[in-house]
């Protein structure tokens, strides 16, 4: 081997760099372990501990040292499926941005286009492109985007803006830029909120030009709190309110109007002054308001006073909203009151008047003094700072400081409220947080306070979002994933076990089959793993559970190149060459290198497609797979060669066989082409059955593809899935429940309110799930313990995810393109490499056969298999991996067929091809066997969450080995013309 010294130098240097990079991970893990021990399960205490040592020197290498923050930045990060935490994708509402840019235009074409874009947005199409497409169709040349009543308004005019002479194409460029600026602004606001939230190593990144933002919070545990923090628009407003005596006549009139359509008529009551109880009755007749007689008032669970019109149950708010929005009710408002805005306060708990002691949920109803422009008395953009503090009663509150303009407006507003003895509602995201009166005159200086029914955590979060500023548009969670830390630790344990067992078995097989050469391959494998982890650390890559699967698979592929080289060396030795000559020949381009390069290029291409189209854990799998291919090639070709050359220079006793394996496949002669009719028939039957099953039986499509909510719920004892399904169906309308792993754990899916955005809907679903299932738990399992994550958690919701329908459509579209793209790219490469289209056709036929076979198995078996067989992102990753490995096997066979057809082997065309296939059997079986072994180990030990993913690859590798021998080669032979076959036979037998 030429340049041996240079290769040794780079290998040693690379090993040292890898050890250096990995050292940061070891140090960081130790410090984080100490923090966990110190905190004793208290996440906030753990974060404070790590923050306190962030700038301390914790790692000294003698020539330099590093702070904890520097060490943390250089470690291998664990994904949420290993670390636990929350992962969400937020969709910034481009629809809201467009409305804002148009100054809430009332143009019918504009508004219809917004609605059509929402309804007709295609997979992978941005909302903005869908809007432009809908606008063009609806306008039909009659309306322009540059119309003064759409985008050529005063706020968008000026340099870089829109003027009425622009074409639609020119306006589109401006709007795209403005939308991108708004998304960038939202990105900055969210980053500031997250940075102050208090989790270690948060990650936030924009996803292309989609308007979506990925947020990962490793170790985060309070699910509902985080979703509220992320989705809150933080639009702060100050409104003057109506007092109950000012709006009371309207409420009585509204109640009376509702009686005409809801219940029988009762006589109207006189209006008193302080509370709604006085509005409902008088001293002479209290029977007129019996339960059921007053549609609006019967919903009141506690009386109000001052600015509070009454208190209602949260479940009745939608009904009350419906009442107040009825046209016949709105018509009862006169004068300035016709602009009144009815809004709800922050949810609280009160004592139930009926039970005298039981606590119940309640929300207050307010009437804000609106106006023709629906503008607040004062906007919240004047707030420059916010701090969590305590009010005069010692209760948690938020103190705000305003700028000079805001201070002046605030003094005027509080002055009016003082004079009129009124109240000022402090409204955040259309929710009244407090509505204090002003009792001591106008407030100067621009300082104000939000007080109310808060705990300390809520005031911290409220101050956080106010400091960060408001989002330019609503941020809806369209995809989310919550993983408990206990589940993450289980994944680490399962992944470590499968990796160690897989490494042991692969190493043992290489020693048993190849003897001393197998030892050299194992040493190269160890170096390969060192390089792989070193690169992951250098790149700052995130290690996920599928990523661990990728590492285990790398151990199988790492010995593939060694197997191909060793089998070629054995052939050269049997041909009479010396050991040195055999090694040189096997490492040459005409020896094993051509097969290795072709096989790995096809694998890299499919891995690249997987990386491009994958997301989250799947991208982690693709990352480790791609890195593993590169490091495996280097160590197999160069590191193992160093040991082999050293043996040649010393003992010179390598034979690449053992007593156990020396006669394997040496006299193997099978007529593969002779049974092609049977293999065609068998594969045709399997293909037809698979297609029929796919058409009639379908698939168990995961929420990745159809949208929905998924919960992995663990119970205290074994549970009946059908019983839980019936209970949940009554609540959610439709639900599925399946045993997931052990019989005390279920995977629950539902589409209930998956299209409804907002943290309120997610929290509602969580509470409904808890209320339905809590009877299966002991009394100590509260809602917080059931939903939220905590160290050591082993019951309740262990994992939860939500995929909105638009994201599901995008994922499905990506999946189709990924599979088709991988097949076409690899097929094109094979045409270029083999220079005959027949090779590409044979390989594609085999791959298509393998994909249909795996799809058929999943369609036929998902209803009765004891593990999940969902078609989701993980399954698509498995299919792409199958494509790569199937191509790998086929290329090894095709390379030998090409070699034999270009050589001088005697016989007819069929005999030459059969001989070439038989000569690859040892390589084909060994490479496939090592892959099957590691996949089987992962299937057994890898954990329930990736079992379906591994099963797809396991079936794919087995059927891929079959198709490369019995489908790909026969298709290649059958598509070569008779004239070409005769020319090959004449050349091979000309000297016979």
Automatic annotation (TrEMBL):
UniProt function note: Part of the Sec protein translocase complex. Interacts with the SecYEG preprotein conducting channel. SecDF uses the proton motive force (PMF) to complete protein translocation after the ATP-dependent function of SecA.
Taxonomy, superkingdom: Bacteria
InterPro entries: SecD, SecD/SecF_arch_bac, SecD/SecF_bac, SecD/SecF_CS, SecD_1st, SecD_SecF_C, SecD_SecF_C_bact, SecDF_P1_head
Identification of the protein by name: Multifunctional fusion protein
Main location: membrane
TM segment ranges: 495-514, 521-542, 548-566, 596-615, 621-644, 678-699, 815-832, 839-860, 875-894, 925-943, 949-973
Membrane-related topology note: Multi-pass membrane protein
Boundaries of every Protein translocase subunit SecDF P1 domain copy: 184-240
Family: Belongs to the SecD/SecF family. SecD subfamily.
PANTHER family: PROTEIN TRANSLOCASE SUBUNIT SECD (PTHR30081:SF1), PROTEIN-EXPORT MEMBRANE PROTEIN SEC (PTHR30081)
Source organism (scientific name): Flavobacterium polysaccharolyticum
UniProt subunit comment: Forms a complex with SecF. Part of the essential Sec protein translocation apparatus which comprises SecA, SecYEG and auxiliary proteins SecDF. Other proteins may also be involved.
Keyword terms: Cell membrane, Membrane, Protein transport, Translocation, Transmembrane, Transmembrane helix, Transport
Localisation: Cell membrane
Gene3D superfamilies: 3.30.1360.200, 3.30.70.3220, Multidrug efflux transporter AcrB transmembrane domain
The SecDF P1 head subdomain domain, residue ranges: 375-473
Domain Protein export membrane protein SecD/SecF C-terminal: start-end pairs: 475-641, 792-974
């Amino acid at each position: 081997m030429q340049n041996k010294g240079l290769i040794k130098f780079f290998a040693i240097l690379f090993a040292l760099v890898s050890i250096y990079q990995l050292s940061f991970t070891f140090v960081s893990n130790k410090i984080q372990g100490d923090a966990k021990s110190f905190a004793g399960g208290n996440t906030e205490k753990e974060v404070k501990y790590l923050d306190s040592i962030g700038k301390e020197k914790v790692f000294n290498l003698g020539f330099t040292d590093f702070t904890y923050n520097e060490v943390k930045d250089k470690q291998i990060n664990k994904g949420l499926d290993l670390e636990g935490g929350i992962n969400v994708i937020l969709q910034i509402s481009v629809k809201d941005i467009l409305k804002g840019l148009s100054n809430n235009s009332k143009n019918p074409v504009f508004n219809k286009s917004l609605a059509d874009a929402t309804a007709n947005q295609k997979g992978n199409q941005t909302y903005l492109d869908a809007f432009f497409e809908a606008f063009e169709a609806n306008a039909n040349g009659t309306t322009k985007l540059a119309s003064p009543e759409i985008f050529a308004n005063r706020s968008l005019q000026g340099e870089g803006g829109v003027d009425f002479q622009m074409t639609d194409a020119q306006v589109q460029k401006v709007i795209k830029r403005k939308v991108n600026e708004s998304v960038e602004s939202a990105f900055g606001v969210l980053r500031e909120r997250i940075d102050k939230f208090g989790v270690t190593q948060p990650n936030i990144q924009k996803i292309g030009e989609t308007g979506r933002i990925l947020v990962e919070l490793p170790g985060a545990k309070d699910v509902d709190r985080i979703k509220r923090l992320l989705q809150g628009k933080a639009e702060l407003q100050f409104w003057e309110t109506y007092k109950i005596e000012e709006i009371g006549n309207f409420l009585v009139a509204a109640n009376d109007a509702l009686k005409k359509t809801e219940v029988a008529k009762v006589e109207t009551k006189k209006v008193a002054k302080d509370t709604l109880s006085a509005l409902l009755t008088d001293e002479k007749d209290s029977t007129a308001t019996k339960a059921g007689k007053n549609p609006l008032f019967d919903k009141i669970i506690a009386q109000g006073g001052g600015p509070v019109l009454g208190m209602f149950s949260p479940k009745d708010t939608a009904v009350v909203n419906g009442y107040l929005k009825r046209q016949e009710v709105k018509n009862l408002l006169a004068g300035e009151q016709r602009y009144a805005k009815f809004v709800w306060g922050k949810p609280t708990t009160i004592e139930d008047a009926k039970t005298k002691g039981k606590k119940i949920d309640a929300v207050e109803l307010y009437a804000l003094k609106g106006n023709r422009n629906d503008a607040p008395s004062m906007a919240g953009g004047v707030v420059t700072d916010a701090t969590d503090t305590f009010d005069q009663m010692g209760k948690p509150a938020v103190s705000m400081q305003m700028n000079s303009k805001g201070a002046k407006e605030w003094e005027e507003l509080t002055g009016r409220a003082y004079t009129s003895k009124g109240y000022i509602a402090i409204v955040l995201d259309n929710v009244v947080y407090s509505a204090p009166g002003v009792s001591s005159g106008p407030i100067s200086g621009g300082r104000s306070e939000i007080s109310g029914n808060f705990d300390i955590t809520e005031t911290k979060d409220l101050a956080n979002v106010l400091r960060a500023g408001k989002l330019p548009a609503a941020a809806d969670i369209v995809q989310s994933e919550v993983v408990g830390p206990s589940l993450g630790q289980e994944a680490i344990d399962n992944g470590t076990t499968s990796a160690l067992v897989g490494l042991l078995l692969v190493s043992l097989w290489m020693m048993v089959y190849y003897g001393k050469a197998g030892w050299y391959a194992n040493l190269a494998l160890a170096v390969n793993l060192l390089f792989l982890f070193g690169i992951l650390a250098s790149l700052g890559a995130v290690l996920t559970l599928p990523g661990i699967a990728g590492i285990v698979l790398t151990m199988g592929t790492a010995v593939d190149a060694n197997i191909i080289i060793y089998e070629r060396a054995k052939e050269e030795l049997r041909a009479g060459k010396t050991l040195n000559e055999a090694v040189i020949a096997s490492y040459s381009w005409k020896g094993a290198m051509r097969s290795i390069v072709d096989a790995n290029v096809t694998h890299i291409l499919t891995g690249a497609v997987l990386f491009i189209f994958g997301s989250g854990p799947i991208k982690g799998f693709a990352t480790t797979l791609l890195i593993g291919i590169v490091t495996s090639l280097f160590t197999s070709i160069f590191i193992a060669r160093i040991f082999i050359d050293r043996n040649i220079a010393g003992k010179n006793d390598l034979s690449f066989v053992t007593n156990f394996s020396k006669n394997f496949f040496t006299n193997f002669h099978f007529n593969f082409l002779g049974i092609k009719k049977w293999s065609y028939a068998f594969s045709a039957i399997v293909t037809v059955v698979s297609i029929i099953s796919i058409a009639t039986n379908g698939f168990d499509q995961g929420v990745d593809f159809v949208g929905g909510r998924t919960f992995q719920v663990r119970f205290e004892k074994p549970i009946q899935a059908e019983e839980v399904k019936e209970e949940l169906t009554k609540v959610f309308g439709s639900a599925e429940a399946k045993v997931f792993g052990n019989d005390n754990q279920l995977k629950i899916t539902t589409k209930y309110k998956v299209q409804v955005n907002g943290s309120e809907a997610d929290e509602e679903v969580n509470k409904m799930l808890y209320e339905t299932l809590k009877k299966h738990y002991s009394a100590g399992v509260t809602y917080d313990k059931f939903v939220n994550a905590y160290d050591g958690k082993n019951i309740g919701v262990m994992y939860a995810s939500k995929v909105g329908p638009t994201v599901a459509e995008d994922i499905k579209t990506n999946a189709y393109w990924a599979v088709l793209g991988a097949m076409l790219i690899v097929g094109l490469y094979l045409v270029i490499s083999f220079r005959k289209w027949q090779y590409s056709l044979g390989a594609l036929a085999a791959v298509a056969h393998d994909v249909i076979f795996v799809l058929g198995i999943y369609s036929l078996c998902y209803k009765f298999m004891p593990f999940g067989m969902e078609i989701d992102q993980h399954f698509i990753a498995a299919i792409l991996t199958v494509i790569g490995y199937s191509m790998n096997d086929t290329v090894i066979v095709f390379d030998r067929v090409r070699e034999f057809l270009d050589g001088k082997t005697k016989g007819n065309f069929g005999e030459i091809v059969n001989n070439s296939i038989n000569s690859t059997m040892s390589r084909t079986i060994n490479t496939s066997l090592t892959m099957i072994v590691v996949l089987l180990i992962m299937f057994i030990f890898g954990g329930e969450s990736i079992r379906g993913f591994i099963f797809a690859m396991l079936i794919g590798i087995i059927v891929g080995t079959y198709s490369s021998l019995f489908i790909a080669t026969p298709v290649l032979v059958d598509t070569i013309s008779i004239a070409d076959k005769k020319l090959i036979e004449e050349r091979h037998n000309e000297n016979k």
